[in-house]
Amino acid sequence: QQYLQRIEALDPQLNSYISVTAEQALAQADAADTRLARGEGGPLTGIPLAQKDIFCTQGVKTSCGSKMLDNFVAPYDATIVGKLHADAGMVMLGKCNMDEFAMGSSNETSWYGPVKNPWDTTRVPGGSSGGSVAAVAAGLAPAATATDTGGSIRQPAALTNLTGIKPTYGRVSRYGMIAFASSLDQAGVVARSAEDAAYVLQAMSGFDPLDSTSIDRPVGDLVTGLGQSIKGLRIGLPREYFAEGLADAVRSRVMDAVKVLEAQGAVISEISLPNSPLSVPTYYVVAPAEASSNLARYDGVRYGHRAADAKNLEDLYKRSRAEGFGPEVQRRIMVGTYVLSHGYYDAYYLKAQKVRKLIYDDFRRAFESVDLVLGPTTTDVAFALGAKTDDPVSMYLNDIYTIAANLAGIPALSLSCGFVDGLPVGLQLMGNYFDEARLLNAAHQYQ
Ligand code: GLN
Which UniProt keywords apply (predicted)? Predict the structure, then answer.
């Protein structure tokens, strides 16, 4: 009830929720009480949670931030929704705002309007999980689910003083998570601390036979090891992540955090990820290509927005898609179909796949000599609403430090390492495959 009251009082200023499921939340809370009274349930039973509106929730609208799905009510729950609510007993408060189909870095592409950053409501909260982070940062949920295709968990967590983790690709099921770029999409969590994030990630993770890319490998215990010392932990600082383009004040906060970790016994060294400059261009071929294919399903026939008074089938497709998708989604579909088309496939898509392998190789080499890679999450603090909406390329450059982890499929986390002029600064830690526990431990020790 307390969270629902805060949402009602404060969310009109932030716009962090698309749907608030008050009645259902109170019923789930009652059920949690009953479970706990019987001595059943676990550490998360009865704890409220907000869901990014990209996860299918049976009986509750799942819009993905798009007019295309404004009328869509999924007939089933995403695997993680079942795991967190039915199994762990968390209470769903509602569905969070997001960039349309998770395409964006500022939550300004949402059909439901932008989300404001609670630290300064003239600024963006980051994206695409802008609603998730704004809700948690403002105390409208203790934690929220989020997804990360190129940075959408870590960049918004950085801009709002939260901890956000994108696990290893395949660690968390994508079943019932609306697809953007399937080889990059990964679900995770944003929370106020690494410890909170560890509990939620633990409950979300695990093999799912309904997702063909899910990994059948034990998750291990993400929580018990949080208190371990980081003495001897080898942390590499890639020189490419501290080069031109990084704001001086951000660099200095990140270096302060490095000193704190060093004082705790971490062994710091400089490393190189030489192909880093190629990650943004590679991503902006691979992600739109996959998106153009995934979004072909929205044809106005099966579900989603359908244009009125179509003259024939082709007209129905064209008008439903023109009306249902916003400009950024249309731009991605155009780029994606272009790079996949005959004659351009080799020059763009195949080339991007080859470069992706080089980026992966950089990390493989790095993890031969270090345990974690550390750098800034973003080049600067949260920018003003509207500042980059007319310039897609400058918006795309927001993900310069986060995209490589998606291309390689490795886990990565962002945590706050201080403030510049009252605005949060994020520190990014990247780990080797399946090293979520180590990432969370390092973040928890710092916190
Ligand atoms: N900002 C990136 C994009 O627009 C990443 C989004 C994401 O991770 N979902 O594609």
Answer: ATP-binding, Ligase, Nucleotide-binding, Protein biosynthesis, Transferase
